Amino acid sequence: MIILYSISALLVLLYLMYPLWLMLFTRCNDDHELETDEIKSVSLILLSHNGRQYLEEKINFLLKELSVFKDFEMLIIDDHSSDGSQELLSRFEGRENIRLMLQERHMGIPHSMNMGIHQAQNKHIIFCDQRQRLSENIIQKIVEPLRYKQVGAVSGCISHLDKSQCCSWVRKHENYIKSIESKSGNLIGVYGPFYAIKKDCYSSIPDDIVLDDLYLSIKIIQSKQVRILTDCRIIEDGFSALYDYKRAKRYVLGFLQLLKERNFIRPLKLNQVTMLFWHKYLRLLIPISLFISYIGTGIKGITDIEYMIAFLILTTIGALSLIPRYKIKFKLANLICVNIFYLLALSDITLHEVFYKKA
Fold first, then answer.
1. Each residue of 194-228: b (16+ CB within 10 Å) or e?
2. What share of the chain has pLDDT > 70, as a percent?
3. What is the DSSP string of 269-299?
4. pLDDT of 8-43, one tens digit each?
5. Which string of DSSP letters, residue by residue, matches 124-183?
6. With 60 as the cut, is the pLDDT of residue 5 above it?
C-alpha cells in the first residue's frame, strides 16, 4: 500500500502540481514591443526523408499557404531518401519559389536544419516535417507573434485528435501544460513537426543532437521567448503509431544527452531549470514507479490471493496493450504501452552504460 500511495503522490506531483505551480509562480510577460508592423517575407524549410506518400499533397498545401506573402521561398531538403522521394521531388525542380537540396548520403535532421538556415534568404523561418496534416491558414498565424521583439520562436500545436478523430487525453493534457508555459514565454520544447523562428535566434545544432527541437528551444529561451499557438494544429496519422520502442529510446537518449551537457543548462534561470526538470525529466520516474508497484503486487500476491488477482489483471492489461492496435483496442492501451517502452528503453540504456564502461 505504501508503494501505491507513493506512486499516487508522484502522479499528483507531475500532472496536477506542475500546472498549478506554473500558474502561481511563473510571471506572464506582457511586453508587446513591435519589431515590425507586418511580416511580408518568409522562408519555409521542408524536411524530407522516406515520406514519398505525403510529399506531393504537403507541398501543394504549403504553396497555397505561402501564397499570401509578397515574398516567399520553399527549401525542400531531402536527406537521401530510398523510397523514391527524390524522384518525386524532381518534378518540382525549376518551379518558382522552390529550391531543392537532395543530399547524396543520410546526414540527419540537425545537418538538414543547419543547411536550410544557411541557405534561407529571409529572416523569418518555418520548419516543417513531411508527414503531418496542418490546419488552414497556419503559416500566416504562426509567424504573427514573430512581429514582437521579445519573441524568438513560435510552435504549432499537435492536436489531441488524430486524422481518424481518435482522442488522446495525454496529448490534451500536454497541450494544456504547454499553453501555460507559453504565457510566461518559456515553452519547454517546441513541437518539431511545425514551428517558426527568427533566423538570428537560431543556434547551429550539433549533428549528434538527438532532440533538436528541445535543444533549440532551450537555447532560445536564454534570451527570447518561445510560445505556442493552440489554433495552429498539427494533425498526426494516428497516436498509436507514435508509441513504439524506437521512439521511446530516442527520447530517453536525447534527455540523457542534454543532461550531460552542463554548459547547456547552466545559462538558464532558476524557474526555467525547474520547468525543464519538472516537465521533462521527472516523468521518467513514472514507468519506474509503475514497474516497482507491479513487482511489489506480484510479491505480495504469493501470500495474498487478492494481490495475486490484481497482479494477473495488471499482467493481462500490459500484454494486451502491446498487441498491434488493429487487433485489440482499449482507451488506456497507448498510455500503458508508452510506459512499458520507456521502462524497456531505460533498462536497455542503463545496462549498456554499465557493461560498456566495464568493457
1. bbbbbeebbeebeeebbbbbbbbbbbbbeebbbbb
2. 89
3. -HHHHHHHIIIIIGGGHHHHHHHHHHHHHHH
4. 666 666 677 888 888 887 776 666 788 878 899 999
5. EEEEEESSSEE-TTHHHHHHGGGGBTTEEEEEEEE-SB-TT--B-HHHHHHHHHHHHHHH
6. no
Tens digits of residue pLDDT in 296-355: 888 888 999 988 998 899 898 888 777 765 445 555 677 788 888 899 999 998 888 777
Ramachandran category for residue 185: left, alpha or beta (phi over 0 → left; psi -120 to 50 → alpha): left
Q: Where is average pLDDT lowest: 61-70, 148-157, 160-169, 198-207? A: 160-169
Q: Which CATH number does 41-242 carry?
A: 3.90.550.10
Q: Are 295 and 318 in contact (CB under 8 A)?
A: no
What are the backbone dihedrals phi and psi of residue 77, each rounded to the nearest 5 degrees, phi first?
A: -110, 110
Question: Which one, of 100, 80, 104, 75, lies nearest residue 89 by Cα?
Answer: 100
d(CA 66, CA 139): 7
> What CA–CA distance (Å, rounded) separates 239 from 162?
7
DSSP state of 202: -
Residue by residue, DSSP assigns 233-262 as EEE-S-GGGG--HHHHHHHHHHHHHHHH-H
Hey, where are the domains in the chain?
1-27+243-359, 41-242
Indicate the pTM of the whole model.
0.90
Q: How many whole angstroms separate alpha carbon 25 and alpha carbon 37?
A: 32
Cα gap 132→157, rounded to integer Å: 11
Give the residue from 147, 73, 148, 68 showing the smallest Cα distance to 117. Answer: 73
Q: Is 227 helix (H, G, I), strand (E, B) or coil?
A: strand
Residue 247 C-alpha cell reads as 521512439
